[in-house]
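Troubleshooting log. The previous run stalled partway through. Resubmitting the same two chains, unchanged.
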Amino acid sequence: MNPRARPEPVQVIKTRRDAALRALVAGVPYIGFLGITFDRRGDELTAILPFDDRLIGNPAIPALHGGVTAAFLETAAIFELSWTLMWEAMEAGQTGPGAALPDLPKTIDFTVDYLRSGLPRDAYARARVNRSGRRYASVHVEAWQDNRARLFAQGTGHFLMPQTDGG
Amino acid sequence: MTDRTRIARQFIEAIPHSRALGMHLDLLGKGLAVVSMPYDPRFVGDPATGVLHGGAVSALMDTAAGAAVMSHPEAPASTATLDLRIDYMRPATPGQRLTARAECYHVTRSVAFVRATATDGDAERPVATATGTFTVDRAQGAQA
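Second attempt completed without errors. Output:
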């Protein structure tokens, strides 16, 4: 006989992951202000910025505001990092309704390369944690619109890790 | 108020996203722009402390930097951000207005170089600094 516990039903896992992500996102007013949402496939996150007239920076082209693009990339980077940090606890079932949300990493610096103008369309971003240490992390993020291979912006940021007790 | 400043102010306040963030052009010089925005709970990035989101700071910095480029004596007909790096020194104090002062300190035929500093009520201690490069788009037929 195999003494291992049966794996949890997939729906239980999905519900827990989605609830954790939703709680993380709902806590940040500026994400709601910009209208950013996240799509999740397993542990892979895609940040989505639905187009809105308020996001325009150059009405003549029209193009997304550079600050919107920067904010979108920085948000995608912070949430990828937070998501990575909370993943293990979440999978162990230690996050749940009523559990305190983890502190978010703090941005030390963030650099955005504007590769082409942001069109008046929805934008998508995925981030990759390239280095995650005890105190610092380095995260790279790519953003595109209609074509995944044609990035309209990329960014790199350094973040100060949230300190756990006794930090 | 000079005509140029008035036109620039109207220009900035006509940018939908700058208007959405309540930005105001406080000062415009030659290659110099000061733009500020009010504190607003909708722009908070860290709910535990009420501190503004870095993205709101980025938007303010980018707007001030772009205005500084446009106000340079060798002003381009139009400009776009090539890159922008922001260093966050400390959290902006909740409740306080944030002001970005940007200086376009060099312009070549194709590129404008800008640095900017953001401060809140305590002007002696910057909240963030930024450096950026911007495209210089000349009017068609203009001599570079």
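Takeaways: Chain A has a mean pLDDT of 91. Strands of chain A lie at 37-41, 44-49, 56-58, 63-64, 106-114, 123-132, 136-144, 151-160.
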